[in-house]
Protein backbone atom coordinates (compact mmCIF):
# COMPACT_ATOMS: atom_id res chain seq x y z
CA UNK A 1 0.00 0.00 0.00
CA UNK A 2 2.80 2.42 0.89
CA UNK A 3 4.42 1.95 -2.56
CA UNK A 4 1.12 2.69 -4.31
CA UNK A 5 0.67 5.92 -2.33
CA UNK A 6 4.27 6.93 -3.04
CA UNK A 7 3.70 6.30 -6.79
CA UNK A 8 0.44 8.30 -6.81
CA UNK A 9 2.24 11.15 -5.07
CA UNK A 10 5.17 10.95 -7.49
CA UNK A 11 2.79 10.95 -10.49
CA UNK A 12 1.01 14.05 -9.19
CA UNK A 13 -2.31 12.29 -8.57
CA UNK A 14 -2.03 12.99 -4.84
CA UNK A 15 -1.11 16.66 -4.43
CA UNK A 16 -0.94 16.88 -0.65
CA UNK A 17 -1.89 15.28 2.63
CA UNK A 18 -3.82 17.29 5.18
CA UNK A 19 -5.56 17.17 8.52
CA UNK A 20 -8.80 18.79 9.59
CA UNK A 21 -8.72 20.67 12.89
CA UNK A 22 -11.86 21.32 14.91
CA UNK A 23 -12.03 25.16 14.85
CA UNK A 24 -13.87 25.25 18.20
CA UNK A 25 -11.02 23.40 19.93
CA UNK A 26 -8.46 26.00 18.75
CA UNK A 27 -10.68 29.00 19.53
CA UNK A 28 -11.38 29.83 15.87
CA UNK A 29 -15.07 28.99 15.68
CA UNK A 30 -16.21 32.07 13.74
CA UNK A 31 -16.06 31.41 9.99
CA UNK A 32 -16.67 34.01 7.30
CA UNK A 33 -16.62 34.00 3.53
CA UNK A 34 -15.46 37.45 2.51
CA UNK A 35 -16.38 38.55 -1.01
CA UNK A 36 -13.80 40.97 -2.38
CA UNK A 37 -14.29 43.44 -5.22
CA UNK A 38 -10.97 44.50 -6.67
CA UNK A 39 -10.14 48.02 -7.83
CA UNK A 40 -8.87 46.92 -11.24
CA UNK A 41 -7.70 50.37 -12.43
CA UNK A 42 -5.63 50.78 -9.25
CA UNK A 43 -4.18 47.28 -9.61
CA UNK A 44 -3.22 48.06 -13.20
CA UNK A 45 -1.68 51.39 -12.16
CA UNK A 46 0.41 49.59 -9.51
CA UNK A 47 1.31 46.85 -12.03
CA UNK A 48 -0.44 44.24 -9.89
CA UNK A 49 -2.85 41.49 -10.91
CA UNK A 50 -5.72 39.78 -9.14
CA UNK A 51 -3.26 36.93 -8.51
CA UNK A 52 -0.99 39.37 -6.64
CA UNK A 53 -3.95 40.65 -4.65
CA UNK A 54 -4.96 37.09 -3.74
CA UNK A 55 -1.41 36.33 -2.55
CA UNK A 56 -1.36 39.47 -0.42
CA UNK A 57 -4.69 38.57 1.20
CA UNK A 58 -3.42 35.00 1.86
CA UNK A 59 -0.57 36.41 3.98
CA UNK A 60 -2.97 37.35 6.79
CA UNK A 61 -2.78 34.63 9.48
CA UNK A 62 -6.56 34.34 9.82
CA UNK A 63 -7.13 33.72 6.08
CA UNK A 64 -7.47 30.02 5.28
CA UNK A 65 -7.95 30.30 1.52
CA UNK A 66 -8.46 32.78 -1.32
CA UNK A 67 -9.97 32.04 -4.71
CA UNK A 68 -10.29 34.19 -7.82
CA UNK A 69 -13.83 33.80 -9.15
CA UNK A 70 -16.03 35.05 -11.96
CA UNK A 71 -19.16 37.15 -11.54
CA UNK A 72 -19.84 40.32 -9.57
CA UNK A 73 -17.16 39.39 -7.02
CA UNK A 74 -13.50 39.11 -7.98
CA UNK A 75 -12.17 37.03 -5.08
CA UNK A 76 -13.53 34.99 -2.19
CA UNK A 77 -11.52 34.55 1.00
CA UNK A 78 -12.37 32.14 3.80
CA UNK A 79 -11.49 33.51 7.22
CA UNK A 80 -11.49 31.88 10.66
CA UNK A 81 -11.24 33.90 13.86
CA UNK A 82 -12.41 33.66 17.47
CA UNK A 83 -15.47 35.91 17.25
CA UNK A 84 -17.09 38.87 15.50
CA UNK A 85 -14.92 41.37 17.41
CA UNK A 86 -11.75 39.69 16.15
CA UNK A 87 -13.20 39.64 12.62
CA UNK A 88 -13.95 43.37 12.85
CA UNK A 89 -10.31 44.05 13.80
CA UNK A 90 -9.02 41.82 11.02
CA UNK A 91 -11.11 43.57 8.38
CA UNK A 92 -10.60 47.15 9.50
CA UNK A 93 -6.97 46.93 10.61
CA UNK A 94 -5.57 44.66 7.92
CA UNK A 95 -7.61 43.57 4.95
CA UNK A 96 -9.33 46.80 3.97
CA UNK A 97 -5.95 48.56 4.02
CA UNK A 98 -4.61 46.38 1.21
CA UNK A 99 -4.18 48.39 -2.01
CA UNK A 100 -6.50 47.03 -4.65
CA UNK A 101 -9.42 46.05 -2.43
CA UNK A 102 -12.32 48.27 -3.39
CA UNK A 103 -15.04 46.76 -1.23
CA UNK A 104 -15.84 43.65 0.78
CA UNK A 105 -18.99 41.80 1.74
CA UNK A 106 -19.13 39.28 4.58
CA UNK A 107 -21.07 36.03 4.56
CA UNK A 108 -21.02 34.60 8.08
CA UNK A 109 -21.11 30.80 8.35
CA UNK A 110 -23.97 29.76 10.63
CA UNK A 111 -23.75 25.97 10.19
Question: How would you portray this structure in words?
Answer:
- With 111 residues, the protein is of the alpha+beta class.
- It has one domain: Alpha-Beta Plaits (2-Layer Sandwich), CATH 3.30.70.920.
- The protein is built from 4 helices and 4 strands.
- Strands 2-3-1-4 form a 4-stranded antiparallel sheet.
- Strand 2 and strand 3 form a beta hairpin.
- 17% of the residues are buried.
- The model has no long low-confidence stretch (mean pLDDT 93).
Main beta sheet: 4 strands, antiparallel
Shape assignment: flat
Number of distinct beta strands: 4
SSE order: HEHHEEHE
Provide the residue-averaged pLDDT.
Answer: 93
| Unreliable sequence segments | none
The CATH topology: Alpha-Beta Plaits
Biggest sheet, spatial arrangement of strands: 2-3-1-4
Q: Could you tell me how far the N terminus lies from the C terminus, measured between alpha carbons in angstroms? A: 37 Å
What's the structural domain tally?
1
Instruction: Please identify the top-level CATH class.
Output: Alpha Beta
The portion of residues forming beta strands comes to: 25-35%
Helix content: 25-40%
Give the arrangement of secondary structure elements.
Blueprint: H1 2-10, E1 30-38, H2 40-45, H3 50-58, E2 63-68, E3 75-81, H4 84-93, E4 101-108
Antiparallel strand pairs: 1-3, 1-4, 2-3
